[in-house]
Specification:
elongated, transmembrane, membrane, mainly alpha, 7 helices, about 85% helix, about 230 residues
Length: about 230
């Protein structure tokens, strides 16, 4: 048998964890940097600024974890319910399920004879897997993992949030506003570049959209902080 040397390196399998990682880091960086920008504009004491930042990091990470856990748990529950339903249908109506599978392959371009032959062979190999994959569009390998999603989102949020907190810790108060803006924009641009490269997408659109939203968020909170600081 001739060996196939040709191989293609597809990237779509990264979409789930890439989305969660980028979303978490982006949320952590923008939310904490925006909060710190508003606080710095209001000119609080250093201890107040640091306590606010740390509290926001911890609370935000827990919130991200909880939100992702609930969301992915709901997805996992739906996937398990679909699996149980398909198991029952295969037990009660095996012939109808075989015809349904053959019909799916026929709609994809196979002849009626070949569609039925493929359906029979896949059913003999693993009927449930064939129906979950080709009828519903999911597989056991891709089932949602709530704990993994929760931990990943919380960790990504903390990594993003750590950037503005490090700026707060390392620089004097009179340099914080400019340093927060620059470090946040660099961090956002880096996130956009990394996500684009990992996903095989053009870098410039990814960088542009993430930086623009970061500028908007920091600008609004900075104005609010300035107004509140002046009024106090």
């Amino acid at each position: 048998m001739m060996k196939i040397k040709h191989g293609e390196h597809h990237l779509s399998h990264r979409s789930n964890w890439l989305r969660a990682g980028v979303l978490g880091a982006n949320d952590g960086l923008i939310s904490i940097a925006s909060l710190m920008t508003g606080m710095v504009a209001a000119q609080p004491e250093f201890n107040t600024l640091l306590l606010t930042g740390v509290s926001a990091l911890v609370g935000g990470a827990i919130s991200m974890a909880a939100g992702e856990y609930v969301s992915v748990s709901s997805q996992a529950d739906t996937e398990k319910a679909d699996m149980e339903m398909e198991k029952r249908e295969l037990e009660i109506h095996p012939e109808e399920e075989l015809q349904e599978l053959a019909s799916i392959y026929q709609q994809r371009g196979l002849t009626p004879e070949l569609s039925m032959e493929v359906a029979k062979q896949l059913t003999a190999h693993n009927a449930l897997d064939a129906h979950m994959r080709d009828e519903i569009g999911i597989s056991e390998e891709s089932f949602a993992n709530p704990l993994q999603a929760a931990f990943s989102s919380a960790a990504a949020f903390a990594v993003g949030a750590a950037i503005p907190l490090l700026v707060i810790l390392l620089l004097p108060m009179n340099m914080l506003l400019g340093a927060l803006i620059i470090s946040t924009l660099v961090g956002l641009a880096s996130l956009g570049y990394i996500s684009a490269k990992l996903g095989g997408a053009p870098a410039l659109p990814a960088i542009s959209r993430i930086v623009i939203w970061g500028v908007i968020a920091m600008g609004i909170t900075g104005i609010i902080g300035k107004i509140v600081g002046v009024s106090v």
